[in-house]
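Standup notes
- DV: blocked on the single-chain target, sequence here:
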Amino acid sequence: MPSAPYHYEARAWRSGLVRVAGVDEAGRGPLAGPVVAAAVIIASEHRIKGLADSKLLAPEQREELFSRIQARALAIGVGIVDHETIDRINILEATRRAMGEALRRLALLPDLVITDFVQLAGLPCPQRNLVDGDARCASVAAASIVAKVTRDRLMLDADCQFPEYGFARHKGYATPEHLAALDRHGPCALHRRSFSGVWRQGELFQS
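- DV (later): unblocked, structure below
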């Protein structure tokens, strides 16, 4: 599997922008649960090998890389926006809010922010928004892994709370199993009411 390169970081490092923060999210598409964003700063002298788009990695690979990122990154920040806020402000704005929170939680101020093609307002430093950033930029790939592992763990907790939906297996995405559970039980407290898949199922349960 091809790993994401340090091309954009190296260019920034050469120009004197030392602290490059990659930013990405997990959970824009699911019908339930939060959206989670992460920001990761990797030092030029402590590059982490094998980083790739989290969606292309097996769960065990993500967990292993998550541990390496935790051990080697200069700084990590995580932002979480819950399903109720997603319903209130929409998923794109919720994603931006989670990314902003992740950046605020970094222990270091970044000199440059690179996102997976999400424009962020009000940053005190330059930003670059890359199409397929998690495949093209190692720092964004690292952020995608941190966000995905963090969110998956939250959905494992949700599975303990609402075992009838199968959150441990599908993490809230609109799989046939999940839609069948919605058909049987209706939405639970963690479902995003503004998402059409939930509404289609939920209509069956309205009096």
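- Follow-up: The first strand starts at residue 20 and ends at 26.
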